[in-house]
Specification:
Length: 186
């Protein structure tokens, strides 16, 4: 970071080359992707009409403080995501990683300890302490621990039991159910 702001991708002259190319095959996903791209284009257009600055400015310090605080406390508005707590850890840690901001050691250790309480005796991770192991929060928890990247974080993952859990949700056709007795999800 040399102090020169990097243009946001949506303001980059090559942005249109990054937009979805569906090769003429329309799917539910491609239709949704096109809707998102149109929405972003509209937001950028409105921004350009309303502001004299060529692009928005990323308020790095405010983002950093908000994210760091989120690893310790989230408002009641996040209560509906109680079964997604490893995802919240992952999203916040990944955002800090993208900002190239450090994760204070004490905060990283607290996240490790929290995620250890989400690890099920069966080896997978659950959405929160005391919940059933589920493939989605397992993915998020392992990613979050890998982002932290300390000996403590790696030691949280019981690799033998994690493999047992993954094998318990793997189906004969190679697909996976999200939890024992659950639905198949790509």
């Amino acid at each position: 970071m040399d102090g020169v702001p990097t243009p946001l991708r949506c303001f980059n002259e090559y942005h249109s080359a990054e937009m979805l190319v569906d090769d003429g095959v329309e799917t539910v996903t491609s239709v949704e992707q096109k809707k998102v791209e149109r929405s972003i284009k509209e937001v950028v257009s409105v921004y350009k009409q309303m502001h004299s600055l060529p692009q928005p400015t990323l308020l790095r310090e405010q983002h950093y403080q908000y994210l760091k605080k989120g690893l310790r406390h989230l408002s009641d508005a996040y209560e509906c995501l109680d079964a997604s707590r490893p995802w919240l850890c992952f999203w916040i840690l990944h955002s800090l990683e993208l900002l190239e901001e450090p994760i204070p050691a004490a905060v990283a250790s607290d996240v490790c300890q929290f995620l250890s309480r989400c690890q099920s005796p069966t080896g997978g991770f659950s959405g929160g302490p005391g919940q059933h192991a589920h493939l989605a929060p397992t993915y998020a928890a392992v990613n979050a621990l890998c982002i932290i990247g300390t000996e403590e974080s790696y030691n949280i993952i019981d690799r033998k039991k994690l493999l047992d859990f993954l094998l318990s949700v793997k189906q004969p056709n190679g697909s996976f159910v999200m939890h024992v007795g659950g639905e198949v999800d790509v």
